[in-house]
Amino acid sequence: MIIDGENFKRYVIELSEKNKRIDGRGLKDFRKPIKIEYGVSKNAEGSALVTIGKTRVACGVKLEVGEPYPDKPDEGTMIVNAEFAALASPEFEPGAPGEESIELARIVDRGIRESGAIDTKKLCIKKGEKVWLVFIDIYIQNHDGNLIDASALAAIAALLDAKFPKLEEDGKVNYKEKTNEPLPIVKKPTACTIYKIGDKLFVDANADEETICNARLTITMDENGTINAMQKGGMDGLEQDEIEKCIEIAKEKTKELRNYLKG
Question: Can you list the alpha helix ranges (DSSP code H) found in 43-196?
């Protein structure tokens, strides 16, 4: 779509007054299909491919043995990275990670970390010496908006899919032989990003809608309805009542997305 910014924004706002969007959805409707495919990478300990509309995000989980942090000698740790493939969007360029990919990784990391989704104490092999390190690598395959929600869903799905590789007696990891032991996942945090266009709140903005949004708020919640993390984006602010509305929307929509996860 070729967008004339102001005219397009007026058109979107006019439609929103009727609870409609440019693709026929309601303001609080996610695009379809929403799909999660598990085990898409044979080289990862766990992997998943998430599709929301035309947005497609893959995630792989790799496990390595390393040393714990000195202040947490009996806990493993987690590292999240995001890669924007140049083929995923004309906006992406090859090279070092940009601000968007760094922000995306941080939002996904914070949601998982602050929820306590992984029982990190069960990643301890030998206190003060050896722990499991969990690497979560996010790959954007096709960008048509709302990468945050798709990436957060792909990350938790890949964690649920992951199995420990065999740890040999000499302490080396045998990646050719997986065990049947899953990662100690105790929560399933999911994210919902609410976008503000004009004075209306939308979920699951597509790429065209994202170009005209005034602000966004990503809220990550677990299955208990606990807010694990919030991240504000965009140039404009949000009023207190708008934030409260965003929280109510997120309660409903994170539950909806969580229904697509296995287990």
Answer: 99-115, 147-161
